[in-house]
Amino acid sequence: MSDFEKLINDFKQKIIEAKNSEEIENISSEIFGKKGFINSEFSKIGILSPEDKKKFASQINNGKQELAKVFSQVSSKIKNKELNENIEKEKIDVTLPEKEFKIGKIHPVSQVIDEISSIFSEIGFSVEEGPDVESDYNNFTALNTPENHPAKDMHDTFYLDNDMKTLLRTHTSPVQVRTMLKGKPPFKIIAPGRTYRSDSDQTHTPMFHQLEGLHIDKNINMGHLKGCLNYFIKEFFEIEKIQMRFRPSHFPFTEPSAEVDIGYKIENNKIVIGEGDKWLEILGCGMVHPNVLKNCKIDTKKFQGFAFGIGIDRLAMLKYGINDLRSFFETDYRWLNHYGFDPLDVPTNYRGLSK
Ligand code: PHE
């Protein structure tokens, strides 16, 4: 056996005896590394005659191949063995205490929107939606709001462009326009959503929520409006009797227009809805103005109806005893934990489920 063959055999033996991946890595660089055995053998080639060079080179290459073969077998055996050992070791410890986690709560505004939607769905209203970013046309013009109306003032409306053609909707009434333009009467819809006005104090926030209602059909009149709102308020506050009054008002998009107040009293520092000598305004409403119907391509000789707009946040404050409107939008987890609702609680008014 030549010296070279002996060396190859010794390395083979070394590889076979390697016990773990650290050892096998070290042997790898000892043999195949930059300054390893194979390269140092090749560096001896320079001093040989051309004939010997060839012989010597092929000898090194053969040796290299032999070692590489043994190396790859042993190294994959070691890696597999170590992998299995690790899997064995990493058994899940089911006795470890679980990590703390918090379950979210439903925001009172979302809860109230669900409640209101289910109350109206019981009497045949479906839910529509519209975008927060609206055109001046849908928000004002189509709703019969004249060019110089105070609501169009920069102080109340957030305009999004210098031409005052795009804005954050100031009410949910543009959903009336969208609904009528895309379909054919009759319409019986509600539309909850965010609305925006440049206003902020204890009872006003720049973003708030409204719920629009629209019922257009043949022969719909103020009596239907009154009946519908009466039903809604009783269901929402879960009371048998309600004092309600219609105060004459003005909206460009309804004629006649009214604001609706409900009676209440204060008992033991708590507000009691339904009766009493005090009045609380909760919504605006009226018969849809013929100009609005015409703008929405409705035949005013055949169809008419009512619309209303309810302040959702105020209803939530009343029903669930929350004093400051601004707290709704401060995203304080402790507040939500206190006033929020369990996601699995079915709204009290959701009779559709238990029927
Ligand atoms: N859009 C009105 C407001 O924001 C409310 C309203 C809606 C009044 C529909 C009449 C009819 O104050």
Write the H/E string, N to C.
HHHHHEEHEHEEHEEEEHEHHH
Number of beta strands: 10
Give the helix tally: 12
Compute the separation of the termini in Å: 96 Å
The largest β sheet comes out as:
8 strands, mixed
- Per CATH, the architecture of the largest domain is 2-Layer Sandwich
Shape: elongated
**Rg computed from alpha carbons, rounded to a whole number of angstroms:** 40 Å
Explain what the structure shows:
The chain has 355 residues and is α+β, with helices and mostly antiparallel strands. It has two domains: 3-89; 108-339, 2-Layer Sandwich (BirA Bifunctional Protein, domain 2). It is built from twelve helices and ten strands. Strands 1, 4, 5, 6, 7, 8, 9 and 10 form an eight-stranded mixed sheet that branches. β6 (244-251) and β7 form a beta hairpin. α1 runs parallel beside α4, α2 (21-32) packs antiparallel against α4 (50-89) and α5 packs across α10 (312-320). The chain starts with a helix and ends with a helix. Phenylalanine is lined by residues 171, 173, 251, 254, 284-286, 307-309.
Question: Can you give keywords for this protein?
Answer:
single chain, 355 residues, alpha+beta, BirA Bifunctional Protein, domain 2, 2 domains, eight-stranded mixed β-sheet, two-stranded antiparallel ribbon, 12 helices, 10 strands, elongated, disordered C terminus, binds phenylalanine
Provide a brief overview of the structure.
With 355 residues, the protein is an alpha+beta fold. The protein has helices spanning 3-17, 21-32, 37-43, 50-89, 108-121, 136-139, 174-182, 222-237, 290-295, 312-320, 333-339, 351-354; strands at 126-127, 133-135, 166-168, 187-196, 207-217, 244-251, 254-267, 270-273, 278-288, 304-311. It has two domains: 3-89; 108-339, Bira Bifunctional Protein, Domain 2 (BirA Bifunctional Protein, domain 2, 2-Layer Sandwich), CATH 3.30.930.
